[in-house]
Amino acid sequence: MNKETIIKISDLAKIDIKDDQIDDILTSLEKILNLVDEMNSVNTDNVTPMSHPLNLKQELRKDIVGASDERELFQKNNKHTDNGYYIVPKIID
Amino acid sequence: MWESVIGLEIHVQLNTKSKIFSPASTNFGAPQNTQACAIDLGMPGVLPVLNEEAVIMAIKFGIAVGSEILDNSIFARKNYFYPDLPKGYQISQYEIPIVSGGAMEIIINGKSKIINLTRAHLEEDAGKSIHDLYPNESAIDLNRAGTPLIEIVSEPEMENAEEAVQYLKNIHSLVRYLGISDGNMQEGSFRCDANISLKKKGSTTLGTRAEIKNINSFKYVESAINHEIERQAAILDRGDSVVQETRLYDPSKDETRSMRSKLEANDYRYFPDPDLLPVSISQELIEEIKSNMPELPSAKKTRFINQYGLSEYDTIILVSDRELSEYFENTLKDSDLNPKMTANWIITEVLALAKKTYLSVKDYPVSSEDLKYLLSNVTNETISSKQAKDVFERMWDNKENPRDIIENEGMKQISNVDELNKIVDNIIKNNYKSVEEYQSGKDKLLGFFVGQVMKETQGQGNPKIINQLLKEKLKK
Amino acid sequence: MHNKTVSELKKYLEEKKISSVELTKHFVDRIKAIDPHLNSFISLTEEYAITQAKKIDLEISKGKIRPLAGIPLAQKDIFCTKGLKTTCGSKMLENFISPYNATVVEKLNDAGMVIIGKTNMDEFAMGSSNETSYFGDVKNPWDIEYVPGGSSGGSAASVAARLIPCSTGTDTGGSIRQPASLTGVCGIKPTYGRVSRYGMIAFASSLDQAGIFTRTAEDCAILLTHISGYDPKDSTSSRKDVPDYEKECKQKFTSMTIGIPIEFLDGLDNTVKEVFEESIKVLEKNGCKFKKISLKSSKLGVSAYQVVAPAECSSNLSRFDGVRFGHRADNTKNIDDLYKKSRSEGFGQEVKRRILIGTYALSAGYYDAYYLKAQKIRKVISNEFAEAFKEVDLILGPTAPDCAFKIGEKSNDPIAMYLSDVFTVSTNLAGLPAMSLPMGFKNHLPLGLQIIGNHFDEAKILSLAHHYQKITDWHTKKPKLSGD
Questions:
Q1: Residues in a beta bridge with B246
Q2: CB neighbours of B320 closer than 8 A, spacing ≥ 6?
Q3: CA-CA distance, B171 to B167, in Å (whole number)?
Q4: Cα C37–C472–C451 angle (5° rounding)?
Q5: Distance of residue A43 Cα from the nearest chain C Cα, in angstroms
Q6: Which residues on B lie below 8 Å from C315 (Cβ)?
Q7: C339–A contact, CB cutoff 8 A
Q8: Is C7 a known active-site residue?
Q9: How far is A19 from chain C (nearest CA, A)?
């Protein structure tokens, strides 16, 4: 974990980190990672990772249309819309 | 000196009624953002629930390509930021897809080649970004966000554009056959990305590959792949290296260019989506779906050749489109039409007119019933083949009823032998020079005589009888 | 009125001794007078509440009495409430008016409850002291220089201060139980999947659960029945039947075997240990058998939690990008700028820190060492609990390692903050139900007793809690409040 890593992950996460904040963030992140490293005190070679606490399976929904047009409601408090579109600065591909 | 290695990733939109994780409609063409519910918009606190039909369609595909249907497949989040991706992640499948393996046969110059599939998985489609509506802004429409897709990944086993196009066409035909997608490339329900790399002839080391996106027609697939192969060959010939990147195909310029937004490799940070659980698929379900599968293209092809005695060439055309094959069989049903003749008619007459007007089978103005009626009248010699062609054109262009035309316009063939004899005698009498030439060996002149008799009968003479009579009477 | 339990208020309303409107006004006035000192509410929904209360009174007059008709309720501001502001304690959602109700909200509305306000909380539920809210710190009613705990600080403080008879909360690593412990109230976190998460703004999806704050176990049981149950809109909710928890917990108490994890007593503060051992003695005299058990890996829960929770939240919070709703920065040059500025302006320090850790833990090359490893530790912890529950009915321990700390004392030391969850996080990782109830004091600050049960054993937990509250009176103690 170093300055470059912080810059890279903050770009991935789309969060601005000002130069004068980087050191602070680095310090606290390092402390957290030290805490996290304590996990390595246990051997987990033969353990299956657990994604969900209960052994449930995915329920399947019947293919029926059940939603109506609520565009007005959803866009009510958003002034960055026009003619029903969401508007963002121009993207050049 | 260079061999191409091509793999295709095909995104197929499944034609479920509602989205893969939300109950919003998937209808094409609705006004912007009127089919995007809270779940599709990625609003706070909402959760995805899996559409059963999407799972069934994926299983159908898996069965059709002979793959393994994996139990307990997992949905994973693919994290990246883009305005048409409302949650900031796409729900896809990563480590355990629903379909694994499988294969698709292609026929190149009569030779069969098997292209293996790596996998096929379920995922949600993103919305649409429109960049040309406003001068300084982009417009986002999320109607499409959440539409179910299967992404079909082939092994990199294609060696040229022709193989790639064949593979693509066969997958396209298959998904339409299965009824899981309308496969409309123009509307975006069937999208293809190509991964292309070159390696030294005979080498087993793969080269660096480039991914080409935004190919939305079979024609462009061919151009894009060929163009990319040339581009990479030129780079390698110079001694330079190919950059691993994503490129966009620009059909107006027939070239590929680097995608600016994907210049840096994105770290998608895949992890299992904690809002969704493993998808349990029982053997019973698979068996049930298997027993309800429609006849697949390869099976239909074999059957057509055996049952109807059609040529491979004709069969491939008829079978390429499920609806066309059904049109053919519906025309034959409960009739005594000759299959070869019917096939020939459909391939030459029907498809010619359909191509002119870009119609798909479901929009044909002539139903299989009407075509059956028309062709039956040819078989029982009520009208001639030539007459039928004229009637057919009127049926197609003006939606005229063939029964009206044939009955009311007295189009019935003249098959009365006495009547025809009189005309034949007349023609022979007035063309004695040609008769001499015919009798001295110029067999081809028979056609001239037939033509003359036909002219006299305004095209309604029964050509078979005319031929017979002439042959007899012209004998020395 | 504000000293009455939900159970008592139910009777009062049914017997028409008080109207819903009167009861609502009583609590609204009380909140207006006292909450400026505590800051436990982000918004007071007075107009909405009066409208609901009038409807309820009309229904009662016609003889239609819903199960919780007219009972005032505060909703943690993490639950989407249709037509009302839902801020999640963040500038990002400062003006977000939810277009839909969370399922928990819908269920309690259907039961006839009246929402009086949305409570303050740590931003996006990330915190253990309610010091990260954009809307200011919440104060502990027992001493306003101290934290109430977090992230459901507002929900806990408002119940402790008798500003509301009950409130909802959420618990991802202890966010209901720890504040319940620090403010001397009851707080239950159900089994993962017991209660729907639909409409509950997600922090860590595989750990989050909705729960209840009340002053008595009986009240907890009453409300728990109403919020529980399968929701087709939440794929992770369970189809298991919902018992009548109130009935279950009031049944004659039969003896139980209770496990005490030796790791929980290791290095424990002396006062906390004494108070805890006193509770054990009381229960032993009243039909409980105790057994020492070992949960070897429970302390690793904090490490695993500090990977799993940030990883999931880093992804869950990506939707807050300023495009469709929420805070949007002005004058942005391009889309990248729009994202970065909106998110950096909208999120506070702790949220940013967790997003960065989470992004790092999931990134290429680190996934195995961090996220995957943490999910394995999770399995180890779960297995240890499963083994323990083969020998005991319930597990007991202190909820938190200490009483409340002073505001500002730990806010610059995230590790110290995280360690205050050491007794609670492992139950979230294992998806187990757990409850905190008052067991005594250290100086003038409350201490909480944690009861942990096996999956879907909420009835057992509530039964023990109710039994404990029949033979002790810690839950009846009241803080002295200014403005009271």
A1: B211
A2: B169, B173, B297
A3: 6
A4: 80
A5: 9
A6: 77, 79, 88-89, 269, 271
A7: yes
A8: no
A9: 14
Assess whether C76 carries a catalytic annotation: yes
Cβ–Cβ gap B275/C199 under 8 Å: no
All residues at 6 or more sequence positions from B11 whose CB lies less than 8 Å from its CB, including other chains: B125, B149, B150, B151, B152, B190, B191, B192, B193
What is the SS3 assignment for C235?
Answer: coil
CA distance A88 to chain C (A): 7
- Output the six-digit token pair for B306: 């055996």
Q: Which of C308, C335, C377 to mutate to test the interface with A (most CBs of A within 10 A)?
A: C377
Length of chain A: 93
The tokens for C110 are 């259907």
Locus of tokens 């554009």: B161
Over chain B (476 residues), what is each successive 10-residue block's mean pLDDT? Answer: 93 97 96 97 98 98 96 96 97 96 91 96 97 95 98 96 94 94 90 94 87 85 92 92 86 80 72 97 95 90 93 89 91 92 91 79 89 89 84 89 79 78 87 87 86 83 84 81
Local confidence band at C401 (pLDDT 50, 70, 90 cut-offs) = very high
Where in B174-218 does DSSP place strands (E)?
Answer: 190-200, 210-215
Which chain B residue's Cα is nearest to A71? B34
Give the chains touching B; criterion: ≥3 Cβ pairs < 8 Å: A, C
Please tell me what DSSP assigns to residue C190.
-
- Residues in chain A within 8 Å Cβ distance of B71: none
Phi-psi region at C86: left, alpha or beta (left = phi > 0; alpha = psi -120 to 50) = beta
- Which residues from chain B sit within 8 angstroms of residue A66, using beta carbons? 18, 23
| Residue C446 CB partners (closer than 8 Å, separation 6+) | C142, C181, C182, C183, C184, C403, C404, C438, C440, C474, C477
Q: What is the dihedral of CA B253, B254, B256, B260, to 10 degrees?
A: 30
Residue C21 near residue C28, CB atoms below 8 Å: no
**Could you tell me which of C175, C161, C134 has the C-alpha nearest to residue C37?**
C161
ipTM of the complex: 0.95
Handedness of CA A2, A7, A12, A18 (dihedral sign): positive
State the chains in contact with A (3 or more Cβ–Cβ pairs under 8 Å). Answer: B, C
Name every chain C residue with its beta carbon within 8 A of the beta carbon of B43: 99-100, 319, 324-325
For C6-261+389-482, the fitting CATH number among 3.90.1300.10, 3.30.1370.60, 3.40.850.10, 3.30.360.10 is: 3.90.1300.10
**B89-92 vs B76-79, strand pairing mode:** antiparallel
Residue of C nearest to A47 (CA): C376
Min Cα distance C91 → chain B (Å) is: 14
Q: How close are the terminal C-alpha atoms of chain B, in Å?
A: 68
Q: Which residues of C touch B81 (CB under 8 A)?
A: 318, 321, 339
Q: Are strands B190-200 and B210-215 parallel, antiparallel or unpaired?
A: antiparallel
In Å, how far is C343's CA from the nearest CA of chain A? 6
C386 vs C121: CA distance, rounded Å: 32
User: Among partner residues A56, A61, A90, which is closest to B131 by beta-carbon distance?
Assistant: A90
Residues from chain C that touch A59, judged by Cβ atoms under 8 A, are 232, 235
- Domain residues of chain C, as ranges? 6-261+389-482
Q: What local confidence, expressed as pLDDT, does residue B264 receive?
A: 57
Q: What is the pTM of this model?
A: 0.90
Give yes or no for a contact between C172 and C428, defined as CB atoms under 8 angstroms apart. yes
Size of interface A-B (CB pairs under 8 A): 125
**Looking up tokens 């506070």, which residue turns up?**
C348
In DSSP notation, B395-454 reads HHHH---HHHHHHHTT---B--HHHHHHHHHHHHHHTHHHHHHHHTT-GGGHHHHHHHHH
Residue C85 near residue C97 (C-beta atoms within 8 A):
yes
